[in-house]
């Protein structure tokens, strides 16, 4: 065993071996994997081995597509068979709502390049004759699904890695991790100590324990998972003989069941409601190639329904029941990336779908470690997406909820109840008393909308307009015509101080820093010129700046800030979280309302648009920004939690004469649509450049050098390939939700377009980098359904909804730049729940296009 290496990967499951292989392939041959026992000794060896490309996050789906594509290459390089069975798969819908979900997935697949097809239950039965088609209303066929040999695949990764120079050390538990002042890690094992520049936690079932070695409590929990194998079935053998192929995999949403052929029988697994965590506090180090005791009673309800839906399986003998632990994060996605606050400590764990995602995780993490960027939009997997509130008990409750809902539909207006409330503001009880429907915003309870008095404050979940539609409209109109108040504690808040603070922020941000007492809006780019942040910044005093951004990205941004802090101590950053809370008042009467609450002049002349002031509001010390996300006249008022009730009560009392209303987050998002304001992690993501994102006016190319400036200059000079646009949609009873395809009646090749979500089928070169493919190359011939006569898919929706004041269904999304200012009727359509609806680009926002109202 070497004593010094570039990186140590801890854990020899499929994910650890994939990371090792991809690091070696990227040129880091001086890497070592250390495994406590044998390869696959955790969850990998007893996995069902299924793989697919479909995922709710298009960016994760793209990495899953890479994983599936990688396997044949891996077999050739390693000489080890993965035992691939590319059978294809069918998802079955038993209700119209589940069929709507499949229509959404099918539409999303159009721009991902997935060759899916909506089929009838009878067509599904022809592929899987063991089912009773009368239980279902429809289905979706995906040809890129199948299964493989878990152990063989893991060994293939390891053999390929060793051929590229990597080292693997087995039967060598890691006992301790320490770090030297220079950042070097000491990986202390039973066989000795290895010094490494980087450490990667691929600990799987032991990921928590590895994290605790460095003071980290990762939000990961193992769950018992059961599947059964039947005895050989004559029906399966007859199907194979008559058709010359294997039976397809099947996913039954209602039964919470997945099935596939296994030899001459069937493998049937379930994600049961009565789920059970395994070893919820500590994972025993001596656990290895063992299985857990089966508990068929726990999965009996699912089996009973499954045998009804698949009567051909009901009479088959059960050969074996497999019960083994798998790890999950609270939302079911992996935990990948560098850990904020630690130097060169990386995670690649909680990858429960290891044989769908393991290759993509290895590729993204190796890119990140070697090149400084994952090369993909991996926010859905970033370990930084969870805050400190994701404690052991929170994780336990949320993982159990996620497991029990794995095959359940998540509606766009559905808020899940487990582990709530985790964080509350002083107004939480007041908001409930006001009949607020609350939502979870990065662990914080936030008012979404207010139900009319006498009605239950509850969402009726739906893919279509629901019971919140009318109340939200009333909130929006009250704000636009009078004045409203909303809680804004769910922003991220930072203070940057020190003699180097202004230079530091000028280096990070694309806009110039404001003069004292003023605000700016500014994006932040990475070295590759991609959008990684969007902030409001106030110059609050000498060597002091206040920053507001997305709460969900608080740790993501702190990681970036800390990476670029000057070494001389001239800059300090403080993250407030809920030690600083806020309220916003907005609407044409907002100025008059604030004047009643303030003891200083807040007229337009004295307190201009984009001004920052520290003043007493309702008698409480506050920081006030003359800006709101509504795009109307308004103010953001920030205070310590101890003062929030006082300020809110003062606003409510003073606002009575102006017809003040409470409004929630959904009304706020409706109003931002009619101003064409983008949102972080929907319109603005690390896959878009600032000019693609239509953030031109906030990027000052003539100011000092800033991170990403050279790449931004190249984008500006060449012209962006894509542009963010706002569209009005001729919707029926459903508005866009995000990730719908945008169709256009065009026959032009718009040149080579980099594919943020994937134009056509994802393609990767020998280094695992996604290749650039033109719309014409991919769209015209190789992707079934992406072209329909003169119509072709040219873009995708990032977000949208109903803009209540202007009474328009609206969407934002990305289209080729050559189409971005074409406002012609009949040019665009957006596919909503399986129906293509006419859409038209709006160059100017439909509400207050000149911005006169918000300037006062």
Describe the structure.
By secondary structure, the protein is of the alpha+beta class. Helix content is 26%, strand content 27%. The strands form 8 sheets. Strands 4, 5, 6, 12, 13, 14, 15, 16 and 17 form a 9-stranded mixed sheet that branches. Strands 1, 2, 8, 9, 10, 11, 18 and 19 form an 8-stranded mixed sheet that branches. A 6-stranded mixed sheet has the order 29-30-31-28-22-32. Strand 24 and strand 25 form a beta hairpin. The longest helix has 21 residues, at 58-78. The radius of gyration is 27 Å and the shape is globular.
Short description:
Belongs to the GcvT family. This protein is an alpha+beta fold and 856 residues long.
What's the SSE blueprint?
Blueprint: E1 4-10, H1 14-25, E2 31-34, E3 50-52, H2 58-78, E4 89-93, H3 96-112, E5 117-119, H4 121-127, E6 138-142, E7 145-147, H5 150-163, E8 167-169, E9 174-179, E10 185-189, E11 192-201, H6 207-212, E12 221-230, H7 234-243, E13 249-252, E14 257-262, E15 265-270, E16 277-278, H8 296-309, H9 311-314, E17 318-328, E18 335-338, E19 345-349, H10 354-371, H11 392-404, H12 428-433, E20 436-441, E21 444-450, H13 469-481, E22 484-487, E23 491-497, H14 501-508, E24 519-525, E25 531-541, E26 544-550, H15 554-563, E27 572-575, E28 581-586, H16 590-597, E29 612-617, E30 620-625, E31 634-639, H17 641-655, E32 661-662, H18 665-673, H19 709-718, E33 722-729, E34 741-745, E35 752-753, E36 773-774, H20 775-779, E37 787-788, E38 791-803, E39 808-816, E40 828-832, E41 835-842, H21 852-855
Keywords: Oxidoreductase
Family: Belongs to the GcvT family.
Protein name: FAD-dependent oxidoreductase
């Amino acid at each position: 065993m070497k004593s010094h290496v570039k990186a140590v990967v801890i854990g020899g499951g499929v994910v650890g071996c994939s990371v090792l292989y991809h690091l070696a392939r990227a040129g880091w041959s001086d890497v070592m994997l250390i495994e406590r026992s044998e390869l696959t000794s955790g969850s990998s060896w007893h996995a069902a081995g299924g793989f697919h490309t479909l995922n709710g996050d298009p960016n994760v789906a793209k990495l899953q597509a890479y994983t599936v594509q990688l396997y044949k290459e891996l077999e050739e390089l390693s000489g080890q068979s993965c035992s691939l069975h590319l059978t294809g798969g069918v998802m079955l819908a038993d209700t119209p709502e589940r069929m709507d979900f499949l229509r959404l997935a099918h539409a999303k697949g159009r721009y991902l390049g997935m060759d899916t097809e909506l089929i009838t239950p009878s067509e599904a039965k022809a592929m899987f004759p063991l089912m009773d088609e009368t239980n279902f209303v429809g289905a979706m066929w995906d040809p890129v699904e199948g299964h493989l040999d878990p152990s063989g695949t893991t060994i293939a990764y390891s053999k390929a890695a060793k051929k590229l120079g990597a080292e693997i050390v087995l039967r060598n538990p890691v006992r301790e991790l320490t770090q030297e002042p220079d950042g070097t890690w000491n990986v202390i094992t039973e066989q000795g100590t290895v010094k490494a520049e980087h450490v990667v936690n691929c600990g799987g079932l032991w990921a928590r324990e590895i994290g605790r070695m460095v003071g980290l409590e990762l939000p990961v929990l193992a769950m018992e998972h059961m599947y059964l194998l039947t005895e050989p079935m004559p029906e399966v053998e007859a199907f194979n003989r008559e058709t010359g192929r294997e039976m397809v995999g099947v996913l039954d949403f209602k039964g919470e069941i997945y099935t596939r052929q296994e030899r001459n029988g069937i493998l049937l697994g379930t994600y049961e409601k009565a789920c059970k965590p395994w070893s919820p506090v500590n994972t025993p180090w001596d656990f290895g190639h063992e299985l857990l005791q089966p508990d068929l009673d726990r999965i009996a309800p699912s089996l009973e329904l499954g045998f009804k839906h698949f009567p051909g399986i009901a009479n088959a003998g059960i050969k074996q029941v497999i019960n083994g632990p798998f790890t999950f994060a609270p939302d079911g996605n992996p935990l990948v990336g560098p850990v904020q606050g630690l130097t060169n400590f990386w995670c690649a764990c909680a990858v429960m779908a290891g044989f769908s995602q393991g290759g993509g995780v290895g590729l993204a993490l190796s890119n990140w470690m070697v090149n400084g960027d994952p090369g993909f939009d991996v926010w859905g997997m970033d370990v930084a997406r969870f805050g400190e509130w994701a404690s052991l008990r929170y994780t336990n409750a949320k993982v159990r909820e996620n497991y029990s809902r794995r095959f359940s539909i998540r509606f766009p207006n559905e808020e899940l109840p487990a582990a709530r409330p985790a964080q509350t503001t002083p107004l939480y009880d007041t908001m409930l008393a006001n009949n607020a429907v609350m939502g979870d915003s990065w662990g914080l309870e936030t008012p979404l909308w207010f139900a009319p008095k006498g009605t239950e404050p509850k969402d009726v979940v739906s893919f279509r307009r629901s019971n919140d539609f009318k109340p939200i409209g009333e909130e929006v109109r009250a704000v636009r015509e009078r004045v409203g108040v909303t809680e804004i504690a769910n922003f991220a808040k930072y203070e940057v101080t020190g003699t180097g603070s202004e230079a530091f922020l000028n280096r990070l941000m694309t806009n110039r820093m404001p003069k004292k007492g003023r605000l700016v809006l500014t994006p932040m780019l990475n070295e590759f010129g991609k959008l990684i942040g969007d902030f409001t910044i106030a110059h609050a005093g000498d060597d002091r700046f206040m920053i507001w951004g997305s709460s969900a990205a608080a740790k993501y941004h702190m990681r970036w800030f800390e990476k670029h802090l000057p070494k001389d101590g001239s800059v300090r950053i403080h993250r407030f979280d809920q030690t600083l809370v806020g309220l916003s008042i907005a609407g044409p009467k907002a100025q008059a309302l604030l004047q009643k609450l303030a003891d200083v002049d807040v007229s337009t002349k004295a307190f201009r648009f984009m001004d920052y002031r520290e003043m007493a509001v309702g008698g409480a010390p506050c920081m006030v920004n003359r800006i709101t996300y509504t795009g109307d006249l308004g103010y953001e008022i920030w205070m310590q939690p101890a003062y929030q009730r006082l300020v809110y009560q003062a606003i409510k009392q003073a606002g009575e004469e102006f017809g003040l209303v409470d409004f929630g987050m959904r009304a706020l998002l409706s109003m931002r649509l009619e101003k064409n304001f983008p949102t972080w992690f929907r319109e603005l993501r690390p896959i878009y450049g600032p000019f693609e994102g239509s953030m031109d006016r906030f990027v000052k190319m003539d100011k000092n050098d800033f991170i990403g400036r050279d790449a931004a200059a190249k984008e500006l000079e060449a012209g962006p390939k894509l542009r963010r646009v706002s569209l009005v949609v001729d919707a029926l009873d459903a508005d866009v939700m995000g990730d719908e395809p945008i169709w256009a009646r065009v026959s032009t090749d718009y040149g080579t377009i980099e594919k943020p979500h994937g134009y056509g089928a994802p393609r990767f070169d020998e280094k695992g980098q996604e290749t650039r493919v033109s719309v014409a190359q991919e769209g015209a011939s190789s992707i079934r359904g992406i072209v329909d006569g003169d119509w072709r898919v040219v873009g995708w929706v990032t977000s949208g909804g109903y803009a209540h004041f202007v009474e328009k269904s609206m969407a934002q999304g990305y289209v080729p730049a050559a189409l971005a200012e074409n406002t012609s009727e009949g040019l665009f359509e957006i596919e909503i729940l399986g129906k293509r609806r006419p859409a038209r680009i709006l160059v100017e926002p439909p509400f207050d296009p000149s911005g006169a109202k918000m300037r006062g």
